[in-house]
Amino acid sequence: MALLQIENFSFSYPRSAQPALQEINISVEKGEFIGITGPTGAGKSTLTCCLNGIIPHFQGGSYQGRISLGGASIFDRSPAQITRLVGSVFQDPEAQIISPEVEQELAFGPENLGYPPAEIEQRIGKALELAGIPGLRNRPTVNLSGGEKQRVAIAAALAMLPEILVLDEPTSELDPVGTDEIFQVLNLLNKKHGLTIIMVEQKTEQLAAYADRILVFNEGRIALEGKPRQVFARRRELEEIGVRIPQVARLAGLLGGYERCTLPLTVEEGHLYLERILRR
Ligand SMILES: Nc1ncnc2c1ncn2[C@@H]1O[C@H](COP(=O)(O)OP(=O)(O)OP(=O)(O)O)[C@@H](O)[C@H]1O
Ligand SMILES: [Mg+2]
Questions:
Q1: Quick one: which of 23, 85, 144, 211 is 20 to 30 A from 234 by CA?
Q2: What is the mean pLDDT of residues 120-129?
Q3: pTM assigned to the model
Q4: Which domains, ranges and CATH numbers included, belong to the chain?
């Protein structure tokens, strides 16, 4: 059975004429890295709110269909249960860190769930290590860089030992180096530790390199879905929707297509692609 199953799910915010999500079907296996992209207002953040309990616990509205995590309906679970199962990382590094020190930030969730101090200590150490930031443990949170803050937010989520990590544009306020660091950490968590990841992201270059599957949202629906190479080959549809395709893929399209070889998505693949067509 899939770890996360979203079936015919639709959601409308209170007093809004148009549903924010319509007839969404997604099945996520344990260990998958799902990338979600799409234009503004497509419903991407709304979906993450349905996964992390903000909807229905802190935001009204009406829904149809079903979302189940580990076999049980997520909307039947309490906020505390959801926080334990679903780790959340948001867009704004400033808005989600609440403690003055990194160690406290990581202890906050496990303390709230009443774990004994030895267990909390062990979780903090492990989470810092997994997020690649053991050196930040005793730092005040106020003077961390944006990228460091986002890795602290990831570590705080990991300290809860979640079943799934849901990130909503975690790199949108970061510079390229900070962005790469986040993707490196996520890739390691996914590939080496088997963590299931759902990431909303506009940076399609990196999504193409790391995600197993891409979902393109548009106007509350899933417009395109598939492996990165399948999805990013649909250049015209993506342009119409307003999704940027990885530049290497665009270049391959401009240079005369990629029917006979596979669509290059990363710089390394672009290099091989160019060698091939130059040899011809
Ligand atoms: N709290 C709310 N109340 C009413 N409508 C909302 C609320 N939040 C979002 N919406 C509407 O729901 C739709 C989907 O918004 P959502 O924030 O999920 O889009 P998004 O894909 O995350 O966009 P972005 O790329 O700009 O973050 C939009 O039409 C938006 O205006
Ligand atoms: Mg959003």
A1: 23
A2: 97
A3: 0.95
A4: 4-235 (3.40.50.300), 246-280 (no CATH)
